[in-house]
Each structure stands twice: as structure tokens, then as C-alpha cells.
Amino acid sequence: MGVMSAVDLIEAWSDLLRRRPTFAPALAVYEELVRLWAATPVEVTPLDWDSGACAHRWERGVPILAEATPPLDAETVEPLLGPVLDIVGGLRGDAFDGLRAFADAWDAGHLTVTSLFPARGRLGTVDHRIGLDAALVAFISAATLRPLLEQYFLVAREHLADGVWQLGVCPFCGAPPGFSDVVEDGRRRLACHVCGGSWTASRVWCSFCGNTDTEDLRRLEPESGDEGYFISACIKCRGYLKELDRRVRWNGGPALVEDWGSPHLDLVAQRSGYWRALPTIVDLGKKGNS
């Protein structure tokens, strides 16, 4: 699986469920996904660009995926995509017609792997007439792409130096961040759930709208006693990210696991009128998200 082995991911997820056993039933869809990723062999040749080629794109503010489309054929994608569609079908019975239309469009070649790629303001460019809401399209895209792009950017990730990338989307695939860590030296590190990339960013900055006005930036603390966890929100664009201060919670799991395993924090943020770019289990259960 690239950055994180399948075994490591399963162990990290199991550890989180041991810490939060009451969440296990609600998080069953993520359990299915973790097991799928672990059971599916991924054979993707990593992009072999050197540091200069990567830096040339980053200095222009261009994510690598925009200029280096991976050669992913149907035989490589479908072992992930098919089961992901089944997972979504089990979660949302009302999406049956949309999922069938998606599968038909895929088989006909009207949808390809590039239809799942991040685009400006959205994850996945699937026509709304297919009948799937934006949250489901984003989930299908991220769940299918993660193992593939994680392997594809295996070499490129090593070339990203701190401070080179200044934007609020992933420097590798262009997706918005899904989680944020405060690391040992106090810096903020944003995590991409779509490809497994990460990059440093200012702690006084909204990654969604670029706002740096400290009066507009809010820190919401959970009442659950989860030391080290908090929500960074912007009252200008109403976007939010969950964060984990690893100086306090040094034994926390990977960003993806910590994000998936804290739906109670999403409820706190959303009940306060904030939104996030990538869907959560809270969003996936809602019918008709646009």
C-alpha cells in the first residue's frame, strides 16, 4: 500500500476501535474499506520524476497529478472500484439507481479513472445526471484512488521540502486536506486522504479560503475529554478541519484513522454550522447531499 502497509493500517484501525469500542457499529463502513484495501493487490509503477521536475510544478502552484496522469487501466482500478460501489450500496439503499447508472457509464467508457480525480471545488467529475450526490461521488473517488495514488506518488513524496507548497490542496493529487496534525516541533501538517500525501502549512491560516485573520479563525474544543483533539474552523468560509496535537497525544494513529474514528467531532463542527471538503460517515448517511 505504499506509505502504510496493509498490516499496519489494520492494526492502527483495530487500535482505534479498542479505544472507542462504542463507535464500532457506526464505523463499520470504514472497517469494510480497510479490509478491502488490505486484500487487494495494487500494482502501480511509481512516477519516476526527480526532485527538479516535481519542484517545477510546485513552484507554479500545480499539483503533480494535473500534469502526470498515471497509466491506470480498468483491470487495475476495478478490483477496488467494484467493491467500493457495493459498500456504498449497502450504506445507502436509495442510491441503487445512481450506482447502477455509474456502473453502466463506466462499462461504456463514459466514465474513466480520471472521472474520479480531484478537480477545482470537488472530488470526482461525475455528471449529476448519473444520480449520485456529491458526498457519494467523493467517497467513491477517495476510496478507490487511495491505494493506487499512494503507490503512484511513492517516489515523488520524498521530493517535497517544507515551505515549497503554499496552497490549501494536496501538492500531489490536488485534493483538499482531510485532517491536520500538530507535530513535535509545533508545525501544522495537513494530510490528504485521497493519495496519502502530506504537507506543512501555517497554523494561522484557513486551508479552504486562505484567510489569515486571527479574529476569523476559531478553535473548538470537544467536551468529550479527548485531550489533544480539536477543531480548526474559519467563520469567513465556514470550513473546518479536525486536528490532533501529537505533542499531547503522542500515541495517536495515522491521520486517516484518526479522522475516520472521530465522527463525534464532525457532529460538533456541523452542528455549529461548519462544513468540510471531504465527506464523513455523518455526511454519507444523509440522502440527497448536493
What brief labels describe this structure?
2 domains; 290 residues; alpha+beta; FdhE-like fold; globular; 9 helices; six-stranded mixed β-sheet
How would you summarize what this structure contains?
With about 290 residues, this protein is α+β, with helices and mostly antiparallel strands. It contains 9 helices and 8 strands. The longest helix is centred in the middle third of the chain and has 19 residues, at about 135-150.
Helices and strands, with pairings:
Elements: H1 6-19, H2 28-39, H3 51-59, H4 74-91, H5 96-107, E1 118-119, E2 122-123, H6 134-152, E3 179-182, E4 188-191, E5 198-201, E6 217-220, E7 229-234, E8 240-245, H7 255-260, H8 263-271, H9 281-284
Parallel strand pairs: 3-8
Antiparallel strand pairs: 1-2, 3-4, 4-5, 6-7, 7-8
Whole-number count of domains: 2
The largest sheet, given as strand count, sense and whether it forms a barrel, is:
6 strands, mixed
Q: How much helix is in the residues?
A: 25-40%
Total beta-strand segments: 8
What is the string of SSEs from the N terminus onward?
HHHHHEEHEEEEEEHHH
Computed Rg: 18 Å
Q: Class by helix and strand content?
A: alpha+beta
Counting DSSP H or I runs of 4 or more residues, the number of helices is 9
Approximate shape: globular
The N- and C-terminal alpha carbons lie at a distance of: 32 Å
* Mean pLDDT across all amino acids: 91
Strand order of the largest sheet: 5-4-3-8-7-6
Beta-strand percentage? 5-15%
Detail the poorly predicted runs: none
